[in-house]
Design a protein that fits this description.
Blueprint (H helix, E strand, L loop, with lengths): L1 E3 L3 H16 L3 H17 L1 H20 L5 H7 L6 H14 L8 H4 L8 E8 L2 E9 L2 E6 L4 H13 L2 E5 L5 H15 L9 E4 L5 H4 L8 E5 L2 H9 L13 E5 L5 H13 L8 E7 L3 H14 L3 E4 L1 H10 L2 H4 L3 E2 L13 E7 L7 H15 L4 E5 L3 H10 L4 E4 L8 H4 L6 E3 L7 E3 L5 E8 L19 E2 L4
């Protein structure tokens, strides 16, 4: 890794050249680099956390002055319980995953390792088609107040054979510098090209980097809605990511009440500033008296504000003690399209027509989610497998869960080691993006002098197009 203040074009070109070398680096070399990164970060813990504390002090003042949101401040804190340990463990977890590029060394009798074969077709005798995994190339990651992103991206990029250019926000400059110095020191001991991972220190270069479509293959913005939308509107480079994390939970009448309380507490209050925190609770009308009071009591007791539609508010006012009922707020339509990133939950009642089947209520909940969510993560709480499967098939989101917290939407929890972010895209990669999402494929044909003119016509050779087993 290098800290660089070079011009955007020079940075992008250097990354492109480095990516070619990294793409064919043996697995052992890539894994050795991750071991070195983990060791260097562990040894630099005090230096990094001291730097992070300086960033937090400045950021706290900015938050007090109204110049920085509380959600950004929370994301900045590397000292939050478990965050440092998770960052380091993520590096090792990525190292220990299978090679996403595979090894065709034995097959081709070559010293070059590349590509898992995912398709193999016999076109004709002595003429074979293969689809082979390969790195995307050069990643540009633009992020705000997430110092752990540097370690996450470095690990995933090196393991998947991609070069990465990182541009962080000013809120965590000291943290970025300290982490980058540790990783840079580690990589000097390895065969990974120095320009494979670059942290850009120059200010006001985002627009210029977004113009480098000749060298940069994918942009991954991680930060505010404004950042993501700016990136999408100002580049020709493909963008992977999401603008909002507007997650919903729907409670069906047959859901287990105690489980609903636990799941809502975790989904809303486990880490309210996270993009996978639930923002809207949809609850079937028949579940109001049996489920909602316990959920509301638990949330209110833990400092969560509840913004209720008229039906749910009336139900809670009749079932909660007066002091708790007085805390309820009336929801407005905008609340159901708001990513609060704080201890606030919008509640809406699903009211099916009289005598309607349970499918109608489910369809109404799904329609609301598809119309108002950000297609990130949505969950259904129900005892019915058929209701759950219908929900998962019908909701148009990257992650659709049954009887579990929306906070499960995470690369580490999925077993990906870590993630570069969560994508709501519908092409290439969706949901938490780990190693697999950072690989694409190429087609290889291995022949023996054949040409297109050999085939077709009355007397030409015929294609075989036989599917072959993948060894």
């Amino acid at each position: 890794m290098s800290l660089t203040d070079s011009s955007p074009a020079h940075i992008a070109k250097a990354a492109s050249l480095a990516s070619r070398k990294l793409a064919i680096l043996p697995l052992a070399d890539r894994n050795n680099a991750l071991t070195a990164i983990h060791r260097s970060l562990r040894q630099a813990k005090d230096t990094i956390l001291d730097a992070n504390a300086r960033d937090l002090k400045l950021a706290s003042k900015a938050a007090d002055d109204g110049q920085l949101s509380q959600s950004v401040l929370k994301r900045l804190d590397l000292g939050r319980p478990g965050k440092w340990e998770d960052m380091l463990q993520g590096v090792l977890d990525v190292r220990d995953l299978e090679d996403p590029l595979g090894s065709m060394k034995a097959l081709y009798h070559s010293d070059i390792e590349f590509g898992n074969i995912t398709l193999k077709t016999l076109l004709d005798d002595g003429l074979t088609l293969e689809r082979i995994t390969c790195p995307i190339g050069v990643l540009l990651i633009i992020f705000e107040a997430r110092p752990e992103v540097i370690a996450n991206i470095a690990a995933l990029a090196v393991k998947s054979g991609n070069a990465a250019i990182l541009k962080g926000g000013k809120e965590s400059t000291a943290s970025f510098d300290a982490i980058s110095s540790a990783i840079s020191s580690a990589l000097t001991e390895t065969t990974v090209p120095n320009a494979s991972i670059q942290l850009v220190t120059t200010r006001d270069v985002i627009a210029s980097l977004l113009d480098c479509d000749k060298y940069i293959d994918l942009v991954i913005p991680r930060g505010s809605n404004e950042l993501v939308r700016y990136v999408k509107a100002n580049t020709r480079i493909p963008v992977l990511g999401h603008a909002d994390g507007l997650c919903n939970i729907y409670i069906h009448p047959d859901a287990e009440p105690d489980s609903c309380v636990r799941i809502l507490l975790d989904s809303k209050l486990g880490y309210p500033a996270a993009c996978n925190s639930v923002e809207t609770l949809l609850i079937h009308q028949e579940a109001l008296t049996s489920h909602l009071a316990a959920i509301a009591s638990a949330l209110l007791a833990n400092g969560c504000s509840l913004r209720c539609d008229s039906i749910s508010k009336a139900s809670l006012e009749s079932s909660l003690p007066a002091d708790k009922a007085a805390l309820l707020q009336e929801a407005v339509e905008e609340d159901y399209e708001t990513e609060f990133l704080s201890p606030i939950l919008a509640i809406k009642t699903v009211v099916p027509p009289a005598g309607a089947s349970s499918d109608i209520a489910l369809d109404l909940a799904v329609a609301h989610i598809n119309a108002h969510s950000s297609h990130h993560t949505d969950a259904v709480l129900t005892a019915s497998a058929s209701v759950a499967k219908r929900f998962q098939a019908s909701v148009d989101s990257a992650c659709v869960f049954w009887n579990t917290s929306t906070r499960m939407a995470d690369g580490m929890r999925f077993g990906f080691g870590t993630e570069v972010g969560i994508s709501t895209n519908k092409i290439h990669a969706r949901g938490p993006v780990g190693l697999e999402g950072l690989c694409i494929y190429k087609y290889a044909i291995n022949g023996n002098g054949q040409v297109v003119g050999d085939y077709g016509g009355m007397n030409g050779q015929k294609w075989k197009h036989e599917k072959l087993p993948i060894d």
